[in-house]
Structures are given as structure tokens and as C-alpha cells.
Write a structure and sequence with these properties.
This protein is an alpha+beta fold. The protein folds into 2 domains: about 100 residues, no CATH class; about 170 residues, Metalloproteases ("zincins"), catalytic domain (Zincin-like). It is about 65% helix and about 5% strand. The chain contains 9 helices and 4 strands, in the order ααβαβββαααααα. A 4-stranded mixed β-sheet has the order 1-2-4-3, with helices on both faces. α5 crosses α7.
Length: about 300
């Protein structure tokens, strides 16, 4: 158990460092693009400030409005205790066992099997399950899935992944705006500016290359972090339920599910317990750098290597 607590602590430290690196990356991107657009190195400073302001505004909007937007995009609707007492009882038991507040529960009307958690902190957490998952899993399997989602809440993954999505979106937006400004407006400004010559050409080339590479690199980092957090949430869920086989069986059922989930998209796929787009003929991408989730087989093998956990 002590080793698991150390893993969670290291995960939180790495999360903070990763956010800092992303913010610095956005500043560098903004500065280089500003220099290339205006043809003057002095334009880098206000461009950095502008990039910082944009990222802070987007982070605040995502922090407060992101969870509601995710629930709306997914078609999730609240489900009362009277409508599904067993679902509420399972989550209540897990919340008490893990020392978490009771999250708000939602259901997504689709035969596909999936679930996700969102929110800015444990006090404002939301857990959504699909109708297919609710009806087709056993109680132990359902408990494993819900423990996985509550582990994301307990580990503050819900906040971190929202912030990561915002930062990646900021990088993509700045890169898109910057390249368009360089090609359509930068030339006229550079002709009037103090810069020019071979040095300016180098700056422009570097800016364009950075604008092309930055979004790809940012998304790869986001996906790698998402995969690691899925492994951690699986392990945390096993400790929460003390029955890893429940989640292992649920994951195998999810992996075999072929029902389509039209409510899911690229912006929300990383939040689900399993990539909801896998049923759309994308199974060949499992385990690749572009996967938001680890392969089901790897997750099941890790869970079964833990064995039952004694109380």
C-alpha cells in the first residue's frame, strides 16, 4: 500500500511539472511567432504576455465550464436514486470507503458500454455511465468500473486532464493563428520593420516548423499522460474494491463491445474508461502513440497480476 501511495504522490508531482513545462512551451511558441510575424525581436515580449493571457483565460473557462460542456456533448442526463437505487448504493459504498464526497450520477442513453468522470475537484465531481454498461455488467464488474472513475476523482485526474486539454487546445490555436499571420500578414509588416535578411528568414523558418510540430508534440504528450493515468486508475480501483477481477472482467466486456457511441468525439474520448471510438473500425490503432488508452489486454494482465487484496 505504501508503494501505491508513493506512486500517487509521484504522479501528482509529475503533473505539476508537466503543466509548468506546457506553460513555458506556450510562452516560447508565442514569443517565436510574435518575432516572425512582426519582424522584430522586441515583439516577442508582448507576444509572450498575450500567449500567457490567452492560456490563463482558456484555463479558467475550461476549469469552470468544461465539465458541464463535456456532459452536454455526451448527452448525459442526471439519474436519481429512485430511478436506479443499485447504482447509487454502489457509488455511495465506494465513496465512503475512499473518503470521497458523493458525486452526481448521470446516464447516457446508448447501448454502447462506457463510463467517464469529470469535474474540477472531488466536491464538484460527476460520474456518467452508459445504459449499455449499466444493463450488461454484473454487480462486481459495475463496481470495478465505478471504482475506476472514482479513482480519477480521488487522484485529481479530472482536473488535470481538463487542464491538459485546455493547454493542448491553446497550443493548437496559437499555432494555427500564428502560421496564418506569418503567411498572410507578416511579409508586409517585416518590410516596414527593422528586421530582415538571412537572420529573419531563419526566425520565420523556425517559427513555421515550431507551429507545425508543437500541436503534434502537445497531443502526443497528452495521450501518453492519459494512458499512464488509466493504468494508475485501474490499480487504484483494485485497491478500492479489493477485487481486481471485477474491473478486469468489465474491461474484457468493454473490449469486446462493438456498439457505436455517436455521442463521443475526439475532444472527450480520453475521459472515458475505454476509447468510445474503437467500435468505428479504429481497432488497428490500439497501443500506438495516438491511442488515448492502453490496450485492454495490457490493463487486464496488470490487474490480474495484482491478485485479490486482503482487507
Amino acid at each position: 500500500m505504501a508503494q501505491f501511495e508513493q506512486l500517487v504522490s509521484a504522479n501528482k508531482r509529475n503533473s505539476v511539472l508537466l503543466v509548468i513545462v506546457f506553460v513555458l512551451f506556450i510562452c516560447v511558441l508565442g514569443g517565436v511567432l510574435g518575432w516572425a510575424i512582426w519582424g522584430d525581436w522586441r515583439a516577442a515580449v508582448p507576444s509572450i504576455v498575450l500567449a500567457m493571457v490567452v492560456s490563463i483565460i482558456m484555463a479558467l473557462v475550461g476549469y469552470y465550464q468544461g465539465p458541464g460542456a463535456v456532459l452536454a456533448m455526451s448527452g448525459a442526463r442526471p439519474i436519481s436514486k429512485d430511478a436506479d437505487p443499485q447504482l447509487h448504493n454502489i457509488v455511495e459504498e465506494l465513496s465512503l470507503a475512499s473518503g470521497l464526497p458523493m458525486p452526481r450520477l448521470y446516464v447516457i442513453e446508448t447501448p454502447a458500454m462506457n463510463a467517464f468522470a469529470t469535474g474540477r475537484d472531488p466536491q464538484h465531481a460527476h460520474v456518467a455511465v452508459t445504459r449499455g454498461l449499466r444493463e450488461r455488467l454484473s454487480r462486481d464488474q459495475l463496481q470495478g468500473v465505478l471504482a475506476h472513475e472514482l479513482s480519477h476523482v480521488k487522484n485529481f485526474d479530472i482536473r488535470f486532464m481538463t487542464l491538459m486539454a485546455v493547454l493542448v487546445g491553446t497550443v493548437v490555436m496559437l499555432a494555427h493563428i500564428g502560421t496564418r499571420a506569418i503567411f498572410y500578414g507578416g511579409g508586409r509588416r517585416r518590410s516596414r520593420g527593422s528586421g530582415g535578411g538571412a537572420a529573419m528568414i531563419v526566425v520565420i523558418v523556425v517559427a513555421v516548423l515550431l507551429a507545425i510540430i508543437a500541436p503534434i508534440l502537445a497531443q502526443l504528450i497528452q495521450l501518453a499522460v492519459s494512458r499512464q493515468r488509466e493504468f494508475l486508475a485501474d490499480t487504484s480501483a483494485a485497491h478500492m474494491t479489493r477485487y481486481p477481477e471485477g474491473l478486469a472482467g468489465a474491461l474484457e466486456a468493454l473490449g469486446a463491445d462493438t456498439a457505436d457511441m455517436p455521442q463521443a468525439n475526439g475532444a472527450t474520448a480520453h475521459l472515458f474508461i475505454n476509447d468510445p471510438r474503437m467500435a468505428r473500425g479504429r481497432r488497428k490503432g490500439r497501443g500506438s502513440l495516438w491511442s488515448s488508452h492502453p490496450p485492454i489486454a495490457d490493463r487486464v494482465a496488470r490487474l490480474r497480476s495484482i491478485g485479490n487484496i486482503e482487507a
